[in-house]
Design brief:
single chain, alpha+beta, Tetrahydropterin Synthase, Chain A, 5 domains, 4-stranded antiparallel β-sheet, about 70% helix
C-alpha cells in the first residue's frame, strides 16, 4: 500500500505541475497572424502593438485585444434620395477602406463602429450631390459623385486611422415607373432616328434613280436627234443626186416609197406585234406617197420657221421697207412728170428746160431708191429675195 500511495502522489504532483506550466505558457506567449495586429494592454492601459509572429507578455499583468485586421474591407451602402427634377432614385455605393498600419491605435480606440461612421458620411455626401443634379445629369456624373464621396471620406476618416482605397457608384436605379417611361422615350427616339435614316436613304435612292433616268433620257434624245439628222441628210443627198440627174418627181416618189418600205421592214423586225395592217386599194400607194411628202414638207417648214423666226420678221420688215421705197420712187416719178407738163404748158422753152431738170431729178431719186431697194433685197436669203422680186414685179405691172 505505501508504494501505491507514493505513486498516486507523484501523479498528482505531475498533473499540477503540467497545469501550472501550461497556464504560464499560454499567459506569457501568444501568436499574431499575417495582416493582423494585436494591442497589448497593461492594467487596461495601452502598452504596445504586437505584429505578426510570436510575441510575449507579462502574465496576469498584461492582456491582449482581439486581432485587428489590416486587410481591405468593403462596405456597401444603398442610398435612396431625390434628384433636382424630383425623381426618387436608389444609389448603391461601395466603399473600400483599410486600417492604416501606422494608426492602428487610433482606429481601435477612437471609433467604436467605423462602418456606421462611414455610412453616415456616404449618405450625407451623396444626398448633397444629387440634390443639384437632374436624373440625366446624375447618370452622366456617376464618376464625379464617386470622386466627391472618396475625397470627403478620405479627409474625415484619416484622423481615425482609416484610409479610403476606392469608392464606386455602381448604379443609379430610378423608380420602376420612371424607368419604364425612360425606356419608352428612348425607344421612340430610336424609332424616329431609324425612320429618318430610312427616309433619307430612300430619298437618296430616288434622287439617284431620277438623275440616272434624266441622264438616260438626255442621251437617248441626243441619239434620236442625231439619228434623225443623219437620216434627213441622207435623204437630202439622195434627192439632190436624183434631181441633178433630171428625174426629180419620179425620184422623189421612189425615195419616199423606199423609206416607207424600210420603215415597214424595221417595224416587222423590232415590233412586238405579229400583225401589221396595210392599205389594199390600188391608189393607196399614191395617197401614201402624198401623205409622206406633205408630212415631210410640213415638218421642214415648221423646223425652218422655228429656227428662222427672228430672221423672217426682219426679212418681212425689209420687204415692207423695199415696197415703201419703190412706192416713193414711183410717186416721185409721177410728180416729176406732172411738174414737167405744167411747166411746159406755161412757158414752152423755160418749161421744157425746167421740166427736163425736174424729170431728171425725179429719175435720179427713183433710181437711187430702186438701187437701195435692190441692195437691201440682196441681203435677204434666196427664198425671200424671190418673194421680194415677185412683189416688186407685181408692183411695177400695176
Amino acid at each position: 500500500m505505501p508504494g501505491f500511495e507514493i505513486l498516486l502522489i507523484v501523479i498528482v504532483v505531475l498533473v499540477v505541475a503540467g497545469l501550472l506550466f501550461g497556464g504560464l505558457r499560454t499567459s506569457i506567449f501568444f501568436t499574431v497572424h499575417t495582416q493582423e495586429n494585436v494591442l497589448v494592454e497593461r492594467f487596461g492601459k495601452f502598452q504596445k502593438v504586437a505584429g505578426a509572429g510570436l510575441n510575449m507578455k507579462i502574465p496576469f499583468i498584461e492582456t491582449t485585444t482581439k486581432p485587428i485586421s489590416l486587410r481591405v474591407r468593403q462596405l456597401e451602402v444603398n442610398i435612396e434620395t431625390k434628384t433636382k427634377d424630383n425623381v426618387f432614385v436608389t444609389i448603391p455605393v461601395a466603399v473600400q477602406y483599410v486600417i492604416d498600419q501606422h494608426a492602428v491605435v487610433d482606429a481601435y480606440y477612437k471609433l467604436s463602429d467605423p462602418e456606421d461612421q462611414i455610412r453616415s458620411y456616404v449618405f450625407d455626401t451623396v444626398r448633397s450631390a444629387l440634390s443639384g443634379l437632374t436624373l440625366d445629369t446624375a447618370f452622366e456624373s456617376k464618376d464625379d459623385i464617386a470622386t466627391t464621396v472618396e475625397q470627403r471620406l478620405s479627409q474625415s476618416m484619416a484622423e481615425y486611422g482609416f484610409r479610403i482605397v476606392n469608392t464606386l457608384v455602381t448604379d443609379i436605379s430610378p423608380d420602376p415607373r420612371v424607368r419604364d417611361s425612360m425606356n419608352s422615350i428612348n425607344a421612340a427616339q430610336r424609332e424616329r432616328d431609324a425612320a429618318q435614316s430610312l427616309a433619307e436613304a430612300d430619298k437618296i435612292k430616288r434622287v439617284t434613280q431620277a438623275q440616272a433616268e434624266a441622264e438616260s433620257k438626255r442621251l437617248q434624245g441626243e441619239g434620236v436627234a442625231a439619228q434623225r439628222k443623219a437620216i434627213a441628210m441622207g435623204i437630202a443627198e439622195q434627192y439632190e443626186m436624183l434631181r441633178e440627174a433630171g428625174i426629180e418627181d419620179t425620184a422623189e416618189q421612189l425615195l419616199l416609197m423606199t423609206q416607207y418600205f424600210d420603215t415597214l421592214q424595221d417595224v416587222a423586225r423590232n415590233g412586238r406585234s405579229n400583225v401589221l395592217l396595210l392599205p389594199s386599194n390600188p391608189g393607196a400607194l399614191g395617197d401614201l406617197s402624198q401623205e409622206i411628202r406633205t408630212s415631210l414638207l410640213t415638218s421642214y417648214e415648221s423646223e425652218h420657221a422655228r429656227r428662222d423666226g427672228d430672221a423672217r420678221a426682219d426679212h418681212e420688215a425689209a420687204q415692207h421697207r423695199v415696197a415703201e421705197q419703190r412706192a416713193a420712187a414711183h410717186h416721185a416719178q409721177q410728180e416729176a412728170a406732172y411738174q414737167a407738163q405744167a411747166a411746159a404748158g406755161h412757158t414752152p422753152a423755160a418749161g421744157s428746160t425746167a421740166g427736163t431738170a425736174a424729170a431728171g431729178t425725179a429719175q435720179n431719186t427713183a433710181e437711187e431708191l430702186a438701187a437701195r431697194a435692190e441692195q437691201l433685197a440682196g441681203r435677204l436669203p434666196q427664198r425671200l429675195q424671190d418673194q421680194v422680186n415677185q412683189f416688186l414685179q407685181q408692183r411695177d405691172d400695176k
